[in-house]
C-alpha cells in the first residue's frame, strides 16, 4: 500500500491489531519491541504490519511511551583508562552493543571519574535521554546506580556492588575462579604461592583475593600478598615487591591477565624462569594470553557475555519485567605453559 496514494488513509495500530487478530495493547507491545509477547503472536503482528504498510510515528510513539530507544553504558573510569590496552572495556562494550543492536536499541557510552561527571550523568538520564542505564567498573560504594534507581530509571550494574543496594547486577564467579587457580598451583606441587590482588575498592579485586586466601587456608599455607590495580605496570611493581618480600616463592596468582603479564616481565628481569622457577596464573583469558611468553595459564571469565547479559537484563527491566537481583556467570581454568 502506498502511504501517499490519494484517498487512502494511513494504516493505524488499530487496523494492525484487527488484521492480526489481537488487542491494540498487544499490537502496541510488539511494535514497541517488548520481549514479553509470545513468538507466534509477534509473528502475526509483524506480518500485519508488513501487509498494511504500517509505519509507527516515532515522535508520537516517544511522547506516548516516553521511550528513546537508547541505553547508556556508564564506565566509572577515566577516558585514559577506558581507551588503554585493557581488553576488558572493549569486550564489555562489544557484548552490550551486540545485544542492544539485536533489540533495535542505541548504545550511549559515558565515562564517569569525578563528582562533576556523576552529576552530569544523573542530569542526562533524568532528562529522559535514555531508557535505562548500565554501570560497569565501579569503585567503592558508588551512589550513582542507587540514585538513578530511586528516580525510577531502570539500572543494572556489572560487578557485585559494594555496600547495601537493591540494584540488580551481573558478575563472574570471581571467588571460585581464584580458588581454581590456586588449587591448580597446589596440585602441580607449588608450595609458596603469592598473589597480586586487584584493587580493594572493587568487588572483583576483593572476591579474587578472598578466593586465594580461602584455598590456601584449606591447605594450611600462608598468604603472600601484593596489591595491584589490574594494569600491566602494577603487575611489574607488585612482582618486584613480592620477590623482595619472599625470594623463595615458586608461584603467583595474578588477579588479571595484564598483571600476570607484568609479573612475567618482572620475573624475566630478575632472572627467574617461568614456569621452571615460578609458575604464573592470570585471570580473564584475554586474547593476548595465548601469545605471552610463555602462553599464560589463566581463569576465563566470559567478558563479552557479561556485557550481553547486562544489556539483556536491562532491557527486561525497562520493559517492566521482574529480574533476578544477581546473575553470576561461571569461570573456568585454562591451562597453558606458564603453569
Automatic annotation (TrEMBL):
<dbReference type="GO" id="GO:0000976">
    <property type="term" value="F:transcription cis-regulatory region binding"/>
</dbReference>
<protein>
    <submittedName>
        <fullName>LacI family transcriptional regulator</fullName>
    </submittedName>
</protein>
<keyword id="KW-0238">DNA-binding</keyword>
<dbReference type="GO" id="GO:0003700">
    <property type="term" value="F:DNA-binding transcription factor activity"/>
</dbReference>
<dbReference type="InterPro" id="IPR010982">
    <property type="entry name" value="Lambda_DNA-bd_dom_sf"/>
</dbReference>
<dbReference type="InterPro" id="IPR046335">
    <property type="entry name" value="LacI/GalR-like_sensor"/>
</dbReference>
<dbReference type="Pfam" id="PF00356">
    <property type="entry name" value="LacI"/>
</dbReference>
<feature type="domain" description="HTH lacI-type">
    <location>
        <begin position="11"/>
        <end position="65"/>
    </location>
</feature>
<keyword id="KW-0804">Transcription</keyword>
<keyword id="KW-0805">Transcription regulation</keyword>
<dbReference type="InterPro" id="IPR028082">
    <property type="entry name" value="Peripla_BP_I"/>
</dbReference>
<dbReference type="Pfam" id="PF13377">
    <property type="entry name" value="Peripla_BP_3"/>
</dbReference>
<dbReference type="InterPro" id="IPR000843">
    <property type="entry name" value="HTH_LacI"/>
</dbReference>
